[in-house]
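HUMAN:
Sorry, I am quite new to this. Are you able to go through these amino acid letters and fold codes? The numbers rather puzzle me.
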Amino acid sequence: MIRRKHIQADCKHFDTLPRVTQRNTNGRIFRWRYDPGLDQRLTAGSIALCAIVYIGTGIEAQSHEDDDPFIDGKRQKRFRLDDVFLPLSEGIVRPAKYSGEGVLGDDVDRYYLRRKRYVAYEEFRPQMRGPRHIALFRTPEKLLLGETSGGYYDGDGLFANHSVQVVVSWKVLEQAGAIEERGIQRVYRKSQQLSGISGNLVPISELFDLRYLLAIINSRFIREYIASNMHEGTRKGRIYPNVWKRLPIKVASAERQLHIAALVDAVQREYQRVYGPLEPDRNQAYDKSNPLLSEIEHLVEATYREPADEVMLERINAKLTNRSNGELFL
């Protein structure tokens, strides 16, 4: 198979890449930087992210078409995104129906939020096109991932629209009695297929700290791996939910996870201490947290270069062992 890396969109300027046989492409046909060695190193002793957490987009904050009226022969929306998510402004009294707070995709960045918005979820939910289950938002902890920017660890029960990817532990959803909800159950079954685990995912999720997962998701090391070996779509920098779901998560010890989790907490506190509710200046914020971010980067890369933690592997395999044939998953 002949492969070319096009320098310009004119079919005249390109570099010819090494040939590969169609049978042995392993996803590299449209990925000119694909590194099979890197793929093997990262997936060894790892488990798919979707086996640990629910990953899906937030609410579709607009009225459902069936509820929209026709005026002068044209369909008119009852409400749109800006009606549900109201930007916070100084000097403006919070309307009573906007009882919640939330974010859009552009509000979420790497370890911090650019801004929050008032949200009238309950007010508009009955006629909303895609409301999502409340347990995905009113949860003790979750991750919020921007489309192209980065992720944030949320413990404040924030809402998010469909331009944000919401990440919630399967364990938490089970405790909330939401795992059987139709939409969540559909994602659960798909996650079993993608991860190759036919059994219960809940016992796996309780072995991983969400902040450890966030450190991996935000790391430049993993972002570069995704760009070279997993990228899909045409929008530069955008990582789709199905890509995140397949991301290999290294099985690390509880101690390593807690160490990284503490650093993630420290980074987010630093952003909040310096800027509070105001939109931060990206460069200054990064300078303030640079030592912490560098340590997180180092630990994430070191974790993937080291063998998986044997104790944690045994715990996972004990939960996943197929009782019919004793086969180990990892």
